[in-house]
Amino acid sequence: MPVRVFALLAALLPALTGLAVAPARAETRVDVELVLAVDISYSMDEDEQRLQRAGYVEAITSPEVLEAIRRGPNQRIAVAYVEWAGAGEQRLTVDWTLIDGKATAEAFVAKLMAQPIRRAYRTSISGALGFSAPLFDRNGYDGLRQVIDVSGDGPNNQGLPVEEVRREVLDRGIVINGLPILIKRPNFGTMDITDLDTYYSECVVGGEGSFMVPIKTREAFSAATRMKLLMEIAGDFPAPSPRPAPGAPRVIPAAEKLNPLCMVGEKLWMERQDWMRN
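Below the sequence we write its predicted structure tokens.
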């Protein structure tokens, strides 16, 4: 083989070797990797959808949340925003975004506000959890905690049983927090339930330090969402106050065990189908 060919191969070898065994991109350290999984089912009217989104917009850019981020050991978090409804209806509305101050928080909010308000059929919390959990894989971030934050106004009524998927998510070390919305009076048509906060506590949220913050009035959206984000960022999980201030959002720790409530949505759906056939 000519000398010039050996020289060429020798020159190319480092580059070829580098292509073959290039090290993986280093992950950015953050205090929490947070998926905001937001219900867009038809049981949420458009006004509630806008209130829900505005609550996140105001919370993420609030001075309190930005200060909580600044006080963290890494002084930054990573957030993704998912919209979900039925078993086949999930969408990554805003991809993973690093938030380390006002400018990056406002950039995240701008991406979110640029998306149209959407609504879709049915309610699959299990589908939302199953879609959200893999988003942590190879997302470029290494968080001290991984959290899926589920907000919604009804129980699971489509897809896999929520307790089954919940268990798989918790086995991955991911914490599930909740923001149950109890603004409307339950009715048979929308298959809402009176004790949605209990359902979330016993069937949805879980993991070390998991919690939920129920929303019972339209005016509470902003304050409740801000409280929830502050707790998730700071890693503080206070017990509920025995005497909460009037109108203040209440924090409820996750229940230790599941119960038959976890299939109430599926039961209501079957009853509704039977009623429509008769």
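Residues 10 and 141 are 37 Å apart (CA to CA).
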